[in-house]
Amino acid sequence: MTHQVRAVIARGKGAPVSLETIVVPDPGPGEALVKVEACGVCHTDLHYREGGINDDFPFLLGHEAAGVVESVGEGVTDVAPGDFVILNWRAVCGNCRACRRGRPQYCFDTHNAKQKMTLLDGTELSPALGIGAFAEKTLVAAGQCTKVDRAASAAAAGLLGCGVMAGIGAAINTGNVGRGDTVAVIGCGGVGDAAIAGARLAGAARIIAVDIDDRKLEQARSLGATHTVNSKTADPVEAIRELTGGFGADVVIEAVGRPETYKQAFYARDLAGTVVLVGVPTPEMKLELPLLDVFGRGGALKSSWYGDCLPSRDFPMLIDLYLQGRLDLDAFVTETIALEDVEKAFERMHGGDVLRSVVEL
Ligand code: APR
Ligand code: ZN
Ligand code: ZN
User: Fold this and answer.
1) pTM, entire model
2) Which of the residues 115, 135, 160, 326 has the least number of beta carbons within 10 Å of its own beta carbon?
3) What 8-state DSSP symbol labels residue 93?
4) From the CA of 40, which ligand is nearest?
């Protein structure tokens, strides 16, 4: 059997997205069919539409999603129909060299559904990040579904599927922020704010938010920043040192993805401290640093892939903390919108006043 559902499609480079009927097959071996309840609008979806990721149009957009498993294919035992799940784009394989060494969060061979979803004329769709959840139903690999407590709001839970998990994980997984640490976060969009929330959760003593927009700094404060620095008007390296006894922060998280902000992170860190790059640079960007400073300052320069998260370990735990009131995921949901409003949400992204628009279905 197949299912005909409404979905948001990007047909060509730079063209506005369209709402179309697509065909979703029943799950085959190892697959799950998910009835999507909510899906956040992420910069990566816009990036696909602009042709910035690859040319495999048409794309089925949407990837920060939560929903309910409708049916599963042969051999699926980890999830069952009726389970409330968060979708992830890193279903670990269990067999690659990273998985075999007990580091599944780095899995190099993650799974997606094998069968294709199509347009009505049979044209195969490329689902964004192997998910494609701006759709009433989507087909994924069963490992892309992580069961969490049904009491969570779908709009908030789905955000763990991408940007918010990237930020929280940059702090708690990659940066290994611990009780009493000083932390600075450069760039306070959805990812940076999530890093701030993660640092608070981990017990950081001081959390310094850096941005060039005062509205962002205000929001960062509500998520746990104890100090803010507007790097348009103050030197962020000096300011962070001043706020950390003249030394620099134990962990600095770069959530912009630019060489100049990376350099700020590098020099705003205490000796033997850690820099975490979670912002994603573009191919032409280059970084120049005195090698002696790289050596002399010691510590660790790390990158964070999707917050180095392991969905099966991190999603249920973070949802439990959310339900206990210790992690305010609702704060990341600026507005809820309908499936037909995705194009408008892309336009609003440039305004800088939205953390996440979330489609509710
Ligand atoms: N210095 C400090 N902050 C900056 C600077 C700068 N030079 N340039 C931009 N910013 C701030 C913006 O004001 C904004 O608050 O960085 C923030 C970026 O936020 P968003 O555009 O909302 O992006 P976000 O979704 O948070 O993602 C940030 O992480 O996952 C990656 O691809 C993503 O590279 C992107 C980064
Ligand atoms: Zn693997
Ligand atoms: Zn995303």
Assistant:
1) 0.95
2) 326
3) -
4) 3
